[in-house]
Amino acid sequence: MKSNQLILLLVAAAVLGGGGVLVLKNRQADYQRSATEMGGKVLGNVDLSAIAGVRLKNATNTVNIVRTGDSWGVRERGDFPANFGEVSEFVRKIAELKVVQPQRVGASRLGMLELTAEKGTQVELLGADGKTIKSLLLGAKHMKSGAGAGAESPFGGGAGGWPDGRYVMVGTDLNTIAVVSEPLANANPKAEDWIAKEFVKIDQPVSVEVIHPEATNSFALSRTNELADWTLVGAKPGEELDKTKASQFSGVLSSPSIDDVKVNPDAKALGLDQPVQAVIRTARGFTYKLRIGKQEGEDSYPVQVSVDAELPKERTAGKDEKAEDKAKLDKEFKDLIAKQADKLKAEQAFGKWTVVMKKWSIETLLKKRNELFADKKADPAAAAPGGAPGFNPLDALKGSIPGGN
Questions:
Q1: Rounded distance, CA 58 to CA 119, Å?
Q2: Neighbour count for residue 365 (Cβ, 10 Å)
Q3: Residue 300 pLDDT > 50, yes or no?
Q4: How confident is the model at residue 14 (pLDDT cuts 50, 70, 90)?
Q5: Is the dihedral of CA 380, 383, 386, 388 positive or negative?
């Protein structure tokens, strides 16, 4: 072999060897990078005390949940109170997300993972100035098949699978794509999903007046205390109040829930210009006035409420009250009134909104006067076949049957 050929072979071997070493080093670097990222926080360190808002948006919806003082409100619902428990838990989860499985994915596969503006959900953690502190794009849920061990699919499980994580990406950096172990199922940019569902809670009602646009449908019920039976105010002759039906008013709005909030409500369009009205008074001195509009869809109604109360200033001591009991009873009375005052303040805040409630929450207040009475028993004579009361078709045959009586 000529010397120049030998030199070329040695150079080629060196180049190939160097290339192999380079590939090996790159693979090791990738492995080391993946090992470093696994278990790390997706968004790095997040100062939760600096978070003053959350924005969620996808291709069709945007919702802003903003903190004002110590409370959170949903901007798209007129700053109606947000569900603080859900918001705080969601923010905590976003801040604590850890990489379970780094993904090396090219730009062409982003659509399949729903890591695009058209398919994904953008989550932004906002500061007090409204500027974005951290931003994260949520993609498709990572599915684990129910077929057994080894059936996990990196791009979605088959039938019978369930979400055990989610694909995420920080900004537009393909190097940050990863799977996290939290599906974040409630990361939905729908304003109605983030509002607080609690509404006024009526305890111990002692009088209920329901006023319909048609006066003949209106009625009023009262009772001497929260344990007594209801009576129909101004009952007419023949009007027998059904105790079972009337008992439904004892729990009216005792645990109500709202579905949504109307922003800039049109009273006429919602039927609130001619509503069904209800005035409910309680044993604790609270008075609730409700206005219920016309039905929307299959089972929803717009509702407005105002609340007032006459709370006692002082406690009336018992006739045989002992001196040693006075301090204790006075303190209990003071604590009770303080709680009632807090309840009044919280419930009066609902007066500036029009909420949407399911029919089952308010259907008791939609009843008409004639629906309160006991069902009339059918008259057997009137219901007899043949038309005439008490008529028996066999009687007409007796004369034509030999020996018939």
A1: 7
A2: 20
A3: yes
A4: very low
A5: positive
Q: Using CA of residue 42, residue 43, residue 45, residue 48, what is the dihedral sign?
A: negative
Cβ-contact 165, 141 below 8 angstroms: yes
CA distance 54 to 86: 12
Q: Where are the beta strands (DSSP E) in 247-365?
A: 258-262, 276-282, 286-292, 300-309, 354-358
Question: In the sheet that 71-74 helps form, which strands lie side by side, from edge to edge?
Answer: 80-81, 71-74, 62-68, 53-57, 121-126, 132-144, 162-169, 178-180, 99-102
Greater confidence, 379 or 82?
82
130, 67 Cβ separation under 8 angstroms: no
Instruction: Say whether 223 sits in a helix, a strand or coil.
Output: coil
pTM (global) more than 0.90? no
User: What letter would DSSP give residue 318?
Assistant: P
Task: Taking residues 274-282, report their average pLDDT.
Answer: 98
**Selection from 141, 142, 140, 138 nearest residue 123 by Cα:** 138
Give the separation between CA 76 and CA 376, rounded to whole angstroms. 50
Sheet containing 354-358, strands listed edge to edge, beginning at the edge strand earlier in sequence: 231-232, 219-222, 205-211, 276-282, 286-292, 300-309, 354-358, 258-262
Q: Which residues of 9-20 are buried (b: 16+ CB within 10 A; e: fewer)?
A: eeeeeeeeeeee
DSSP letter assigned to residue 46: -
Residue tagged 């919806």 (tokens): 61
Pairing of strands 178-180, 162-169: antiparallel
Q: How many helices (H) and strands (E) does the chain have?
A: 5, 17
pLDDT, position 49: 94
Structure confidence by residue, pLDDT tens digits, 345-392: 999 999 999 999 999 999 999 999 999 998 776 555 555 555 455 545
Radius of gyration of the chain (CA): 35
CB 265 within 8 A of CB 230: no
Query: What is the SS3 assignment for 276?
Result: strand
In whole angstroms, how far apart are CA 54 and each of 86, 147, 197?
12, 38, 19
Torsion region of 383: left, alpha or beta (phi above 0 gives left; psi -120 to 50 gives alpha) = alpha
Across-strand partners of 210? 219, 278
pLDDT > 90? residue 30: no
